[in-house]
Amino acid sequence: MSPFEPRISWVLERAATQYSDSEATVDLGTGERRTWAETLGRVRGLAAGLRDLGLDAGDRVGVLSLNSGRHLELWFAIPEAGLIMNDLNYRLAVEELAFIAKDSNIRVLFVDEAFLDAARQMQERCPELHTLVHMTPSESPAEATMAYEALAATAPRSFDDVGTGGDDVAAIFYTGGTTGLPKGAMLTHRNLTSNAFHIVASLALNHSDRYLHCGPQFHLADGAFAYGVTWMGGTHVFIPAFNPAETLGAFETERITCTLMVPTMINMALQAPEAATANLSSLRAILYGASPMPSALQRQAISTFGPVFAQAYGMTEASPLVSYMSAEAHVRGIAGEEPWAKRLESAGSPVVGVRVEIRREDGSVCEPGEAGEIYVQGPNIMVGYWNRDEETAHALVDGWYRSGDVAYADEGGYLFVVDRAKDMIISGGENIYTTEVENAIYAHPGVLEAAVFGIPHEEWGEMVHAEVVCKPGVALEGDALKEHCRQLIAGYKLPRSVNVRSHEEPLPKSGAGKILKRDLREPFWADRGRGVN
User: Is the pTM here over 0.70, yes or no?
Assistant: First the structure.
């Protein structure tokens, strides 16, 4: 253990000490506004209340919620109590949520009104999940749940038996697995506070910033700002979920200075009627990620929002920020200045505090322009996957994280991602592992073979496509197969297009009998120049 043990609690304590009466949270869903002093008091009460539920240090606590000030409080209260937060993707099917709850042994689940039914179904499937806490402003919670406000009103106290800093695990974030099962990346206090430093340095966050949470808070991409904005004593503004009109309205009425959006969200906001008249003069930084932004969309976005766009690349295992491309680089690129024009296709360069290498299969470092696998090193890299020793050993090699992404770097260190881990699709900013979709398809009794991969889509970047071979004597319809999958996986993972083949049209295979997805993908990407969109 290093003698320097950073703690998530420091982040909030600094804000509450230096900016006690400043506005901390603005919840546009409930109309609630709180100062940093109030937020600190509530967080400490929640931490004490959680331990009163019979939880021991290191127990896992789940969150299933839309965006809100209460959601942000839990990002501090759960680790403050020496517990481990598991923020759940509410877009998952109940069976997927139940698997994660069982895998991580969630004991207590915080749930808002929108997902009470799903939470009750999870509890039926997970005997260890003994308490549901209703995240409502009301002191009268739903039947068989506890009131969030009752926990927040608990008298604060210190905890002598908990590990609340350094390399202690503070949160587990589940990401799709190449085996078809989600796996939980374990992130420590050091990981998350380091990542907060990285986002503060990259975007020069300060006390005057007002950050809009318009993307889902369960995404770790939002977590960089959850801690970074707090550390600087800025203000968090919440809308429950992304809506173009509400987002543009919040930009204007709340004088938002920065936010994070994926290109799909940016495009939807640009197409909204409100974009033509909204006062966007307060904006100074819109960070986008998940995929590069097409040049035409970049130009339109800068024309409407101003020269405020910066790009980030990262992954859950890196807490998540790895590389960054500034707004200035975008402006110079749009103007046609080289090398910036070419770099508009990149994912930026490594952020301060993070090392990146492009390596060949033998582990040696590639020359500039030579494609290889992205390796990442820094204090932000996870300590491993929850209960997945084999996958941890594969991903963490001599202090480096193997991303599985294929890229090359130019002379200036800018990363150009040319392909992804073969089993992942990024559609509308969501990571979709093809094995998960294929498992759902194979559960249909009429399916003989299946291959799932991403194909270009102008709005979403990529969409899920399935090539399916029927068993002899079976006739399948693509729509019926989609409905079958809907019962097993989240809606955003469903195949958007399905090509059904007879058993006389088998999928192409290698000499070892492995389905050659690359051969299936190539016709869709032939005119794109790279295997991502």
Answer: yes
